[in-house]
Amino acid sequence: MFVPGLIERKRDGGALTPGEWRDLVGAYHIGTVPDYQMAALLMAVFLRGMTREETAALLDAMVDSGRRLDLSGLGLPVVDKHSTGGVGDKVSLVLAPLAAACGLAVPMMSGRGLGHTGGTLDKLESIPGFRTGLTLDETMAQMAKLGVAMIGQTPEIAPVDKRLYAMRDVTATVECIPLIACSIMSKKLAEGLTGLVLDVKQGSGAFITDAAKSLELAQTMIRLGEDRGCPTVALLTAMDRPLGRACGNALEAEEAIMALRGEGPEDLVEETVAEVVEMVVLGRTSGRADERTSVPGHRGTGAPGDRVVVEKEVRAALSSGKAAEKFRQMVEAQGGNPAVLEDPSVLPQAKEVEVYYAPRGGTVLRVEPRTIGRAVVEMGGGRTKSDDTVDPTVGFVITARPGQPVHASEPLASIFAKDAAGIALGRRALDLAIEIGAGKAELLPLIAARVTAQGVERLA
Ligand code: URA
After folding, report:
1. Which pLDDT belongs to residue 40?
2. How far apart are CA 434 and CA 438, in angstroms?
3. What's residue 304's pLDDT?
C-alpha cells in the first residue's frame, strides 16, 4: 500500500475503494501507518468529504478493529442512545437507568468532554468512587445483573476510533459529517445493539451548527445503522441554549439526580422522556418498521410500540422511583457512593460561590451555550490538553431562561469556582452569554423533528 498516493487521491477530490480503506485502517491499527499520514488523510477527508461507499467502508473497518459485545443471552432488547454533544446535556445520566427500569438492556458507552461540550464520563466521575473504566467482562457481568452499565470506551471497542478521535481533536478535523458519523456509529455498533436513538443537536452550541447539516448527519448515521441491521431513529434537539440549568460536572450530576427524584427542570425531563419513549418503541418493535414510524401522540392502539402507552409507562417509571432505584444500584455496582441519591451534598463542592445579578431590566433574549461551555472549560471543568485533570466542582447554575422578563439586579445565575479568578472569569462569561434587551427571544423548538429511514417528521 502506497499511503502518499492514497492521501494525494483524496486531496485531489478522488475516492478510495472499500478495500483501500480496510487495508489502511488495518495498517494504522497495527502501527505500520504513522499518525502524521493519517492526520494528513483526515484533513483531506475534512476538505473533500467522503462518498457513501467510503463512509460505510471506513465505519466497517473501525468496528472490525475491536471486539463486539454480545448481549443476546440477556433475552432483552439492547438499546442505547447517543448525543452529538452539547452544553448542560446530562440526559444520559437520567435516561440510562430510566430505560433500564422500562425493561431495556442499556450498555451505554460514553465519552469525555470534547471542545466546549461536557462529557457523560466526567459527570459520572464527579460521584465519589464511581468507576467508568470497567472491562468488557465486568460490563457484561453488570449488564446481566442490572441491565445497565455506564462506561468509557474500553481498549477492546473500536480502538481505531479512540486514536482517530484524539487526533481529530487536535488537528481541527472534528466538525466533519462522515468522520463524526463513523466515530459515533463504530462505538454504538460494537455494543451489539438491537436499536439506537440518536440525539442530534442543532444550534450555536452544537458541533454542527447548521440545521441542514445536522439533518444530513442524522440521516448519514441512520443509514449506516439500518444498513447494518440496527434500527436507528434520531431526534433533532435544541442546543441554542444550555439544557436544564446546571453546566459543570458535579452540578450536572446533581441536576440529573434531582430529575430522577422527580424534581428536574422541564426541558431536561421532556427531552429525556422523549428519547426513552423512542428507545422503548425501538426495543419492542425491532424489525416492525410499520409500528416504528407511527406518529407521536397518535391514538392508542394497544400495540407494544404505541407511543401514548409507552410514554405513560416511562413517566410512571420516573415518578414511582424505579429509575432512581436503578441509578442507585448502578452507582453502587460501579463503586460510587449510593448515598448521592438521597444526599447530593456528597458530591464535591466548589470553594467559591457567587450570585450573578441582571445588569439591566428587559427580556432575556439569549443564553449562549458555547460561551458558557468554554467558560466551564477555562474555569477548570474541562480539558484543553488530553491529560488535563478536570475540576468537577466548577460551573454555573443558570436560572434565567430565554424569553423570561427580568428586572435589573434580579438573580439570574450562580457561579461556582475554585477561586476569585474563576468567579471573575465566570462573571465575564455570563455578561457575554446572557443577552437582555427589548423584543422577543427566538428559540429553536426543544425537539424539532424525528428522523427515521422513512423520512423526517417535523414535531414543531
Ligand atoms: N462524538 C463522537 O463520539 N465522535 C465525534 O466525532 C463527535 C462526537
Report:
1. 97
2. 13
3. 56
* pTM as predicted: 0.93
Is residue 76 within 8 A of residue 104, CB to CB? The reply is yes
Q: How far is the CA of 91 from the centre of ligand 1 (A)?
A: 16
pLDDT of residue 297: 39
What is the β-pairing status of strands 362-367 and 405-406?
antiparallel
Ligand 1 pocket test: pick from 92, 184, 199 the residue with the most ligand atoms within 8 Å of its Cβ. 184
Concatenate the DSSP letters of all residues of 232-292 into one string: EEEEEEE-SS-SSSEESHHHHHHHHHHHHTT---HHHHHHHHHHHHHHHHHHHHTT-HHHH
Cα–Cα dist 300/297, whole Å: 8
Residue 326: predicted pLDDT: 98
Mutation choice for ligand 1 from 114, 169, 220, CB with most ligand atoms inside 8 A: 114
Q: Which protein residue has the closest C-alpha to ligand 1 atom 8?
A: 84
Whose alpha carbon is nearest atom 6 of ligand 1?
180
Pocket test for ligand 1, best of 58, 83, 180, 198 (most atoms within 8 A of CB): 180
In short, whether 86's Cβ falls inside 6 Å of ligand 1 is no
Integer CA distances (angstroms), 453 to 84, 143, 234, 306, in order: 19, 29, 10, 19
Q: How many other C-beta atoms are found inside a 10 Å radius of the C-beta of residue 458? A: 9
In DSSP terms, which residues pair with 408 in a beta bridge?
none
pLDDT of residue 288: 47
Q: Which residues of the chain have pLDDT under 50?
A: 287-302
From CA 17, how far away is CA 41, in angstroms rounded?
14
CB distance 146 to ligand 1 below 6 Å: no
| Active site amino acids | 82, 161, 168, 183, 187
- Residue 152 Cβ < 6 Å to ligand 1: no
**pLDDT tens for residues 391-445?**
999 999 999 999 999 999 999 999 999 999 999 999 999 999 999 999 999 999 9
- CA 360, 361, 366: angle at the middle one, nearest 5? 85
> Is the distance from the beta carbon of residue 202 to the nearest atom of ligand 1 less than 6 Å?
no
Say if residues 191 and 136 touch (Cβ distance below 8 Å). Answer: no
Plot region of 300 (φ>0 → left; ψ -120 to 50 → alpha; else → beta): beta
Determine if ligand 1 sits within 6 Å of the CB of residue 139.
no
